[in-house]
Write a structure and sequence with these properties.
Elements: H1 4-34, H2 49-65, H3 69-96
Length: about 100
């Protein structure tokens, strides 16, 4: 049976990769929902995610697409690590004892 450390490290890598891929789309979604709040001009006002991504990259650069990712890592990564480790441990336990 693989160790808990292996499960935790694999789920850490999976969580980081997943959040890194999805986060720019979440930034675009938030900017499209909020628009120009507080008298500021909206960065993203188009209707498609692709045009929104282009607008963010042109106006704010890559840093703008990943602005605020650190708190998201702090929130999501531990949850993913615990959930995937528990799932993998239960599956391994079931396989070991003939449940699967």
């Amino acid at each position: 049976m693989p160790s808990v450390t292996l499960f935790l490290s694999c789920s850490l890598v999976a969580g980081v990769i997943a959040q890194s891929v999805v986060f720019p789309l979440d930034v675009i979604r938030r900017q499209m929902q909020v628009g120009g709040v507080g008298g500021r001009a909206a960065v993203v006002s188009d209707l498609t995610w692709l045009s929104g991504l282009r607008a963010v990259l042109q106006k704010q650069g890559v840093r703008g697409a990943f602005a605020g990712i650190s708190p998201t890592y702090a929130k999501v990564i531990p949850w993913v690590m615990i959930a995937k480790t528990a799932q993998d441990a239960l599956v391994s336990f079931g396989v070991l004892h003939g449940f699967r």
